[in-house]
Amino acid sequence: MSLLSRLLGRTAPAPTAVRRFDGAAAGRRATGMGTFGRINPEIATAGPRLRSRAAYLAVNNPWIANAVGNWTCALVGPGIQPTAKHPDPDVRKALNRYFQEWASQADIEGRTDFFGLQAIAADSMVKAGEAVVLLVQTADGPRLRVIASELLDDAKTVELADGNSIYNGVEVDSDGRRVAYWILPEKPNSVWTTYAPSVRVPADQVLHVFKPLSPGQLRGITWLAAVVLAASEFDQLCDAHLMGAKLAAMHAAFIIDLNSTGAVYDGEDVPSMEPGAMVRLPGGTDVKFNSPAQLQQIDAFLKMNLRQLAAGLGLPDHLLSGDLTGANYSSLRAGLLPFRQRVEQIQYGVLVPQLLAPVWRAVILHGILSGDIPAADFESNPAAYLTAEWLPPKPMQVDPLKDTNATVAELEAGLTSRRKAVAERGWVLEDLEDEIAAERNPNNGA
Predict the structure, then answer these.
(1) What pTM was estimated for this model as a whole?
(2) What does the pLDDT look like over 324-377, one tens digit per residue?
(3) Closest among 393, 382, 313 to 351, alpha carbons compared
(4) CA 185 to CA 197: how far, in whole Å?
(5) Backbone φ, ψ for residue 83 (5° rounding)
(6) Closest to 233 in 3D by CA, of 304, 127, 129, 305
(7) Are 78 and 151 in contact (CB under 8 A)?
């Protein structure tokens, strides 16, 4: 309080209290800060360009290519295996065998099997943010075709007279349920870009797989969205330093003719730079060696940028850069555990309900209706036939012996089942038991 205020008997006013979220405040600190609106308009505006840039990085940037490959492997590996949940062992065995036989012919293009299609869909989900799988009904049963996500008509947005609405090629009813997709027609062997109006395909013939960022989201967004700019600039930085290093290596030294005498170096206008060469310099010349200082501290800066990219992609550092310097068993395990939790969340929260479970239902239902699967109690208990447990492959371990001992301990303690342990290794329990029995009793079939 000032002397004048004390003499006049006045007190200084209390400071005004401000109640606010600093992140929403205006002012100089907030200059240039972006905002994010409702999810569907944001994706409609930025989605196609982000998808195109992400696809470019995935094939041209070595770090991003490595990250996409590792994400795909972590999500599906050699394939997520189903096992029937029917209580009857014989029926369960028949269901599993029928699906495995179908899986080898699942690809309508005949290029891979059902488990290979899982990898293609997972790769598309990472790069494009979504995978679009067509469920094609044929005389031999359902078949699958994975199409490029850009064939979903991004420009198709309209309100329909029946109360339905189309947004970015996805048609929903008044309750938000997907009823159809508008897909641009393209032949599987198409080479040249052509235009034709999009075609309405009922939703029960399309499996649209993506990890939503927000409730009500209709289209997926590339998982590279958070790192597209950073990855592009990092790529340019690496190119610039590589070019600088090449130029520095080309120019070992510069000879300055201080007196402008037109000096000749052992009879040559330009001194040679062969290894071990001894060049006689004329009088009045000086030498300046090239030693670029900008390359001396670059290693730590590059590693920091790689860690930033890995964080944006949700990957442990070494799955992006491949650098295991300073890593040990404990540090690797600590880094992989939260990543594996994230992987399981996507496997069971996205891939199973959006792709794998619908495929099982379609395949088994066709087998029952065609008579290939005997199902006397189907009408009374359809869920026993149309549900399966999907078990992703067990992550590879640094120390397989420790992992095997841990599995044995879980089995003995009743914390897991043989069916689950076998399925995690990519086998169907009944097939494995038959194979073991055949090996132990080779003369049974004689």
Answers:
(1) 0.81
(2) 887 777 787 788 889 999 999 999 999 999 999 999 999 999 999 999 998 888
(3) 393
(4) 8
(5) -140, 130
(6) 305
(7) no
